[in-house]
Amino acid sequence: MSSFIYLASQSPRRQELLKQIGVRFEMLLPTSDEDSESIETPLPQEKARVYVERVTLAKSAAALTRWQSSGLPWAPILCADTTVSLPNSPDGEILGKPSDATDAARILNMLSGKEHEVLTAVAMTFTPIQKPTVLVQVSRVQFANLSPEQVDAYIASGEPFGKAGAYGIQGLGGTFIPSIQGSYSGIMGLPLYETQQLLEIAGLTSK
Length: 207
Hints:
The protein is of the alpha/beta class. The protein has one domain: Maf protein (Alpha-Beta Complex), CATH 3.90.950. It has 7 helices and 7 strands. The two termini are 17 Å apart. The relative contact order is 0.18. The model has no long low-confidence stretch (mean pLDDT 92).
């Protein structure tokens, strides 16, 4: 039985969270010829939960293929994906990573003063011949009313880029959030309760 897992994610926040609970992991990162952006493109009218599960399973399949050609010893593979959802939004309910400053402002203004959902799917491939097991954590986040000056200053900080929903709760974005219902670690990108459940199934614990 393996004493470590592979983390198939470039997110430094997921690395930090695994270290926080004492999990040994090695990186299993996408290669330059993998088209990860197309995996993350929402399908027309796709619901947020369906989207985040689909993307995480697609990432898991890509990671397994990567391992098969790597010559590395086997260990369970952990993948995750996070999306921000504004239910009933006329622009579609999935708010991904902003493409530029104008897009970041659009997303932040949509979230301003509203409650939204953050969904994170986490999946583990236990053996090379098993389908991954995927769990989804959903949190509700209240956003403060943001002034145009706050939006501009936040975009100027650079923090919105590369983050679903154009904000990071663990950084300056946390100052815009008066309350949450759910999992703080899930909003960061890796729900620790669900991750621990998968580790226990794999015979690994963070204890």
